[in-house]
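= Protein in question =
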Amino acid sequence: MIGFSFKSERSIDDFFAHLQNMAKNGKFAPHDHGWGIYALNGENVVYHRSQRPIFDDTFPSLKLNAGIIHARKASEHLPVSILQVHPFIDNCGKAFCHNGTIYDIPFHFIESDTYSYFFKIRQFNSYEELLEKIAYVAQNFKHTGMNFLMMNKNDLLVYCGYNTNADYYTLWYNDKNGFVVCSEPMNNDYVPMENKTMFVVKDGRIVRKLSI
């Protein structure tokens, strides 16, 4: 998955190509159970989900200033359909995608641990409250990774948290010219996030760093 935030719009062709490559050739490839994007161009919203593998699909060349893109590799016990493709959205300007498996979380509405995770944490009055909700899920449900990208209106929220396989679940970010975060680094400018850490990113800048 990839998240990005910039002060002004830019092409995301390079991010789309990088996610295609990760999904086809990266760690634990292929990630071929669909893909989706939620992104902003000022007040305009782009939202698209597809059941096709991202490396067999195309996307129009657009200039966007913030968003999240995800390619799915389904957990073995979960269905493969358009209903399970990330990102998920709510009716309050939030969008959410997740890497990892939460094994025993009760399903809400659809058979998706990610959607259930989103439903449990999506309503919060502060980012401290959000961290408390993340910690509750982590402490009460068996999981591998709880990494997520969330758009909260114009803010990009990035959480890196896992119980196993740091090589796979560590998120990598670059904040030199705007902000980009990836499951696998695009180049040597990317640095790893610490485990159990959340960034709040606005207009291409990390404005808050919080930890559980």
User: Anything to note?
Assistant: The mean pLDDT is 97. The chain has one domain: 2-211. The CA atoms of residues 172 and 192 lie 4 Å apart.
